[in-house]
Design a protein that fits this description.
By secondary structure, the chain is mainly α. It contains eleven helices and no strands. 69% of the residues lie in helices and 0% in strands. Helix 2 packs across helix 4 and helix 5 (81-94) runs parallel beside helix 9.
């Protein structure tokens, strides 16, 4: 159990390494002072461009992947240790100990862990995310819907209780971290990627 707790702490510490702030320091910027103030890939893309955002996303995905790999490599029990490591890494990303507990929203880190724990679920998750983005143009809404899809997929196999609990927890966590996006969506002030609304334009829906 002590080894499990040590690697759980390590997962949180790994999650606390912010890709947005790390690359931002190399560029001489702090993206927390720009755009939405978030350190994740969406704000990185809006404020620094595609290449910078891609680097941020790859680092954040890598954090989830590495955290789960280490837990599975060195800790055998409990059986749900990998899922615990993933949630710890996501928590570290959102509340990074190195950056004043002010980080991102956890989606990319979650994807990294799922690459190790449940890679097959990424196809429906990314399909829902992309479809929603191409219709509505809201990144936050698309991410929340993808998180709900994760919970639904896990519920289809209730025999795997650790996966179900972790998936529902992750979905609720994404709703929590995107609460400001959902509030702006209700208020009609959420930023929209009109260029991503390919399906909306295809079927003749004009931008709102």
């Amino acid at each position: 159990m002590l080894t499990f707790l040590l690697f759980l702490l390590a997962a949180y510490v790994i999650g606390s390494v912010s890709g947005g702030l790390l690359l931002g320091r190399l560029r001489g910027v702090d993206i927390r002072t720009q755009g939405s103030g978030n350190t994740g890939g969406t704000n990185a893309f809006r404020t620094q461009g595609f290449k910078f955002a891609l680097g941020v996303v790859l680092i954040d995905i890598g954090k989830g992947l590495l955290s789960v790999w280490l837990m599975q490599r060195f800790v055998v029990q409990p059986a749900w240790a990998g899922w615990a490591a993933l949630l710890a890494a996501v928590a570290g990303h959102v509340w990074p100990v190195f950056h004043g507990f002010r980080g991102g929203k956890g989606a990319a880190t979650l994807i990294g862990g799922l690459l190790m724990l449940w890679p097959w679920v990424l196809a429906p998750l990314l399909s829902v995310w992309l479809l929603s983005l191409m219709i509505f143009g809201y990144v936050g809404l698309s991410t929340v819907l993808a998180g709900l899809t994760l919970a639904i997929c896990a519920a289809l196999d209730i025999q795997d209780v650790p996966r179900l609990v972790a998936s529902v927890g992750a979905a609720l966590f994404l709703i929590y971290t995107h609460r400001s996006n959902l509030a702006r969506l209700r208020a009609g002030s959420e930023p929209r990627f009109e260029r991503a609304r390919i399906l909306a334009r295809l079927f003749g829906h004009k931008p709102a």
